[in-house]
Amino acid sequence: MKNKYRKLAVIMLTAVCFAGCQQEDIVYPEPDAKVAETYLTLNELTQSPLQVPGPEGTYILKVISDDKWTLSSSQAWCSVSETEGFKYSQVPVSYSENPWNEPRTAELTFLINESQEIKIVTVEQEASETSLAADSKELQYNIGGGEKDITLQTNAVEWNVEVVDEPTHTPVKWCTVTPVTGKGTATLKVTTESNTTEVVRKASLVFTAADKSLSIPVIQADKLEAPVITLDDHNDFLLSWNEITGVDGYKLKVIADQNENTIDIPSGTASYNLDVIDWKGYVGMVSIQLFSYANIGGGTVAQMGSEIIEAHNLFDETSGDGEKGSEYIITKPRHLRNVQQVS
Fold it and tell me: For the whole model, what pTM was predicted?
């Protein structure tokens, strides 16, 4: 009877030990993880670098050692989830995507506990494919020239840019860019001079990095663009227009009762509230026209005018001018607010 219980105890102990040993050896790698084919000693692991691709992933090292060891990584992008081991060990090495178009390295340091000997395994990650993109497909300038920003989006550790003439591919002087070299994503300033050639000028902004290039067209008009104006007179007497690149400013011409009033408006502006104008008691129809202008050198000023808009300065356009028998027609909030000006 004693032999029977003794055999049963041995079987149960063996089963528990077997289950425990198996559980310790189990590693559940990520679905796409690459697993080493064989177990290698620490000396064997140090003989050649561990090569991993540019995209993120996991590699399972198989380590055999008669000595207990601890493990650390020199780089944050390369991490280990098992930091100690003994005998047969499987070590998941995880690495993030390489953000640059050049290889990078990390060191896995195995420290043997008893002897304090260090074994280093180098991890080499391949470069990511070079990418070049910009936030503008084309840069357009008016005759007066000007400055515009363009953002280069790239993973290149070094890129260069130059402005070349479109037909001849030679450098141009009328268009410049800064900076001309850099690393990674950057915002550049592209500046053109006034165009006095009387022809459309064309160039290309050419970015190069490693084996890739990107070309962005640069086009400068041969004549000044005329503003396109819109009048919103519902709540305010507001004149708006498309902002024009390369102008030195705008001139607003308002004619009321045969009296002309010219108002200077700085460049970079795209609206003007006509309610601020002192009509000096005048009530009636007014003519409104906006001019863009640019100094193009030699004392020459290019100027282009918008269409002319006719509008009543205070009330509905069917209103009279305040003479005896005429009526003020109120159809909008702005008209009602203007009653106090004539009461």
Answer: 0.69
